[in-house]
Amino acid sequence: MSINKGILVFCEFSGDSLTSLTLELIGAGSRLAKSLDEELSAVLIGDNAGRYAQEAISSGVSKVYVIEDPLFKESLCEPYLIALNKVIHQISPSIILLGQTTLGRDLAPCLAFHLNTVATMDCVGLELDPSSRRLLMTRPVYGGNAEVIQICETDPQIVTVRAKSFDPAIQDGSRQGEIIRIPAEIDPQQLRTKMISVHTESQAGVKLEEARVVVAGGRGIGSADGFKQLGELAGILNGAVGATRPPCDKKWIADSQQIGLTGKIVSPDLYFAVGLSGASQHLSGCYTSRIIVAINKDPEANIFKAAHYGIVDDWKNIVPLLISRLKEVAVHNK
Amino acid sequence: MKNIVVCMKQVLDPEAPLSLFKIDPEAKRAILPKATPPVISPFDENALEAALKIKDSQPAKVTVISLGKKLSRAVVRAPLAAGADELILLEDDLFDEFNTLLTAHALSSAIRNLGQYDLILCGIQAADTNAGQVGIGIASILDIPFITFARKVELIGNTVRVEKVLPHGFAVIEAPAPAVVSTSYEAGELREPGVEAFMSASKKPVTVMNAQQLGMTTVPASPVSFRKMYQLNRERKCEIITGSSPSEKVDRLMSVLQQAKVL
User: Fold this and answer.
1) What's the number of domains chain A is made of?
2) Full-model pTM
């Protein structure tokens, strides 16, 4: 039996607050900590990261470890590994939770291999096995066509969690916690990867992964101009435009907007699937959306087996009308 | 000349009709349907394309390594037709696509055996296990740097230069060679085989090795065990919104969406 104890959440933040996924990790961590009767800790690593410590405590974390240094950058995993290892050595947690993010996807496996174990990636469910008290971790496999429930027999159990899989922690300003600062002491010379520059690519409108409404088009949209119409629809709804792979390959829309197994995974409140067939690889990226509306002239299209609502018609007859109706509503509501 | 290694996995065709997809609950694995042959994981095709782009611009040898219990020879040769120079197949009954630790160790041994390597490319994740750990594992075992989510990879002298995709743009990152780079789908679709490469593919060297030949006397046991694997039912009862005209359909859709409080 291992002597590791406690749950450690790796926190990410943006702007003035912890990311919504981090709050979900703390929410899931609190629940597990309660069931296991163990302590919930969090680690904040980054330039000026300490300013998020109070928010972590209000969310239910009892100990926050803070490692600050301007050299931490989202795109470079190496210094985070060194810093995170320091905390792990100090507290030997049984469970380490990270988000399935740019950084988490790097950090969890390299931390795991460093400790001669493997991480469990992209979990959508975390329960405790009643007999062994170990984590039962549910994650999608085969492009989301199946799920596996797995157990990691050795400590620490390193897990990355998919966004929107758990309820976020509820804030309570009266909660008390301890903030422990650890010096970074990282010599930049020991880092092998170096960041040369960062480039912001302003995607017009809302980011795909964060959008409440996504309007996605497939091969049936036919042209870049067609995607402009989808863009107009998305714009009215304060949403983002997405696509299946063929339109990206044909350069009708930027590669960054691809949704599916080989692209981004989104889960908005409302998903318009327009002129797309509903291949399994695409559904893997959008199936968990709250409401999927399919618009396709082919009544046999597979998308009608995955959507909540469907309109069998040429999208060119439907989308312009939808745009003008929504504009009317918008004017009416002003 | 630069030596580039590309790790490519054979997987169940992710584009195959869902009706053919079945899980064996005992084995906790998908059953390979006879009707659809396996394919190279699409993410690994992006990695090969990144390697071939480097080879377009400078002298380079591209070695493809595939690992599996039993690899389809028809599928495994496709990278040679696309322009890779050499193929190494790691085949053993001991191999298990879900044992990440074992896979990373076996691939690392094979790469070490090559002696000379400047760049190791792999896909961001496999289309079956969806984990995305093996590339990082290889870097960790070989103790070399890694960069993930590459949309562009260059080898400039002894420096690996990568454009890494970020949620809000990209970063340019450099590491000294050798390094492991995993490519995202933005790295580009694999080119169609050229006539010449296609014709010469059958003459290119193919080496087959098992775990013992790799020098793996002990096989790392997976710390992870599966309790259960099950198929997800993705069929929904779709409510088709009908109407005598597009306008009527749109009106009905609007009211349905307003009722659902998503508009």
Assistant:
1) 2
2) 0.91
